[in-house]
């Protein structure tokens, strides 16, 4: 088995801050993505909805989002929105494999 992680941010104008990792997502990778890619794409008043996982709650993630003027909301343990994001993730990976330069 090989794990590939795709993470991005859906905004009203489209997808931003897309990243493809050749490894499973961990807290360190998420923090780097939030600080280096997501934070610069956020605007004051924005809301970041994020899965309610332990790796998403490490020190620095909330701070990097809040300093941009956005707020963070953790999804409940089971949420249809979360299921939809997982569906999108599964179905977008084949497109990413065909067009890696788009990321």
As residue ranges, the low-confidence spans are: 95-103
Helicity range: 25-40%
Order of strands, widest sheet:
1-2
Average pLDDT reading? 81
The secondary structure category is: alpha+beta
Structure in words:
- The chain has 103 residues and is of the alpha+beta class.
- It has 3 helices and 4 strands; from the N terminus they run E-E-H-E-H-E-H.
- The protein has helices at residues 27-41, 61-66, 80-98, and strands at residues 5-11, 14-21, 47-50, 71-74.
- Strands 1-2 form a two-stranded antiparallel sheet.
- Helix 2 (61-66) links the parallel strand 3 and strand 4 (71-74).
- The radius of gyration is 13 Å and the shape is globular.
Which descriptors would you attach to this protein?
two-stranded parallel ribbon; globular; 103 residues; alpha+beta; two-stranded antiparallel sheet
Which helices and strands appear, and what pairs or packs with what?
Layout: E1 5-11, E2 14-21, H1 27-41, E3 47-50, H2 61-66, E4 71-74, H3 80-98
Parallel strand pairs: 3-4
Antiparallel strand pairs: 1-2
């Amino acid at each position: 088995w090989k794990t590939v992680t795709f993470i991005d941010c859906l905004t009203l104008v489209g997808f931003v801050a897309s990243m493809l990792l050749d490894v499973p997502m961990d807290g360190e990778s998420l923090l780097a993505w939030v600080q280096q890619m997501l934070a610069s794409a956020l605007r004051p008043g924005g809301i970041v909805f994020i899965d309610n996982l332990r790796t998403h709650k490490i020190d620095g993630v909330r701070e990097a989002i809040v300093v941009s003027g956005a707020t963070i909301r953790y999804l409940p343990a089971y949420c249809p929105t979360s299921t939809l994001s997982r569906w999108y993730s599964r179905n977008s990976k084949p497109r990413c494999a065909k067009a890696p330069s788009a990321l």
